[in-house]
Amino acid sequence: MVFYRKNSLIVLAAALLCLLLPAHSQEGGSPAVRVERSTNKVILDGTVYFIHVVEPGQTLYSISRAYNVSEKQIAVENPGAISGIQIGQALKIPVAAVGQAAIDTSEPAPSASGKFHLVREGETIYRISRQLGVSEDDILLANPGLDPENLQLGQRILIPGPKAGAGVEKPAEDEAREPAYNDEGFAHHRVKRKETLFSISRFYGVSIQDIKAANAELGWGGPKTGQVLRIPLPQLVEQPESHIEIPESTGDEALSEEPPRDYGYQELAFLHRDSERNYRVGVMIPFDYSEAPPPDTLLRDVKTEARRQRIIERYRLEQAEPESVRFLEFFQGSLLAIDSMRRSGMKLDVYFYDTQKSMARTRALLEQPEMLKMDLIIGPFYTFNLEIVSAFSRKHKIPMVTPFYNERTFIEENPYLFQVTPSVEAEYRDLARLVASKYNCNIVYVREPDSLDTEKHALLQALIFEGFEKFSPSEPVTFKELVLDVNHTGEIVHSLTAGKKNIVLVPTRNEALASRVASSLYFQLKNFDIELIASPFWPGFSSIDYRYYHELGLVYYTPFMKSYSSPAVQDFLGKYRSWFHTEPQATTRKGINYGIAGHDITFYFLKALDVYGPRFILELDDFSPGLVLTPYQFERVSEAGGFENTAFRFYQFTPSLELRSLALPDYPVEHYFFKPMDNRRGRSYLNFRQKRPFH
Hints:
With 695 residues, the protein is of the alpha/beta class. The protein folds into 4 domains: 17-108, Membrane-bound Lytic Murein Transglycosylase D, Chain A, CATH 3.10.350.10; 115-159, LysM domain (Membrane-bound Lytic Murein Transglycosylase D, Chain A, Roll), CATH 3.10.350; 279-422 and 563-647, Rossmann fold, CATH 3.40.50; 425-558 and 654-669 and 680-691, Rossmann fold, CATH 3.40.50. It has 18 helices and 22 strands. Helix 10 (323-343) packs parallel to helix 18, helix 13 (424-436) crosses helix 14 (454-471) and helix 15 packs across helix 16 (546-552). The two termini are 56 Å apart.
């Protein structure tokens, strides 16, 4: 859909599917008969459904009892069913909503050749399906109730085996054997039909880059059938220094080869601004609303208490503020930015697409002919859709923007991707510098016993210790790690030191733990000098008295700070009210306002297109248009990757009930002429680890 003026915008959001078969009317007086659950399942727009064909004597009530769902749920999926059903009518019943108490035991068990897969960091259903050679539909059918948007680290997913009678290609005998390496440490692999560098690298356990390094004749076209490749021993491959694993696959085997390490956007060298050009922009927003599953379904397989609390909290937030409302406000903010750019004279064709929180829908949208002509894509919002669109963006060299995704998985491999929300690594770099600058204090690092965040805690602590080496390379530092569960936060007092300033760092997003820690520290202020440093989630916690924040001098950081006293914020809210007769209320858990984010992201990139044309990617170092919130500061993550916003601001609550901006200290200038040995044991670190067993 092309947008020309405010009143001409139409959002085409929904498609209605009716599965009706020729039938006779069911007599109202017929008695209800026993209803057997159907074993037939289909996937429509990413949702798994049972297809139940109505038989004589069955009623909507008896069918709902058989599937242990409400009549309302069936009627929502099958408009018109509430007023009567017909013999032979095919009803869609969502598998995720079906109760477990009445499951038909005659339903076929999973294939004996199936296996379980543990979800790793950054993985999506789409990526898992490509890696394991199983379709997404088969994975969803084998895991009823699985939410592809909410995969958890360590979650166990059933991967179905090949279907009976299906023509599955068996691996060649030479693939079943262990590879033979020569004295130089190389194996020789003859490329077979349909093999790619990605599949070969997975088989031998080495990276695509290492295979390319050993085979200089390989180009962008990939290996040829019958070609013999030299495969280095995995042990000879130099491992990356980072402990965080970045998956190599982009989610599409045709695009899985790594880009050059020095990708330089050669196609943009001779492109310049054209004031007469109509720029095409696609905005992908999931307007589709679906009712959330009940809490007991979400918590069925959850083992740890910390994860249970996160899921419950997220469920409560969703009930109070549905996602569809948040995305609508983002959309409305985008409209204001588009209006501003049109008034300035920019010619725009803007296409709004409803992705409906569906991978199938997103793939269908990418097949639209106008997508290949886009100058910019904004969105999508969910990880599983982002992976698909990022692969499309990279292949066709179309700049795209992800608004709220904050992992480095995709910007590491797509030089056309802009990530507006900074990654955890970027956050931790600045946070570590702030904490390390307080090396002469008693530093207490508080975390919960949640193994899912172990790597993140290790990363932050490593950065803090690197900061100590820069701020105080020779003086002793007191650093205490305290592992606390929510029921024993009172023990934090044993880590505090009288007569010395205590810096308590609590990088948690768990409101229950944050509330207990803040309360415990507040009542120790008479005995100790305490300053609290926390994550961006804390200002959004409703259960904590803000008086605690002010008295403890809480320090937190955010890339997007909203101040109602700012003229830019006031102007935006005034325009928003005049257009939509309300104010944007929805925020992310980190406090990012959806409406303002929609405006700033759209305005920034449209303005960049207007000023620099398609080569704006090369011109953003000094580009700073007037935004409502904090200006963006994009830095390229690598010579082959995309761009990440690294603009942060630190703020501190003061006892005078004010919120002041806090300057981040610079690292001292190094005056020695050689790099000292990295010998942490030689330092006088007083690193106490106090841990209480978690039961």
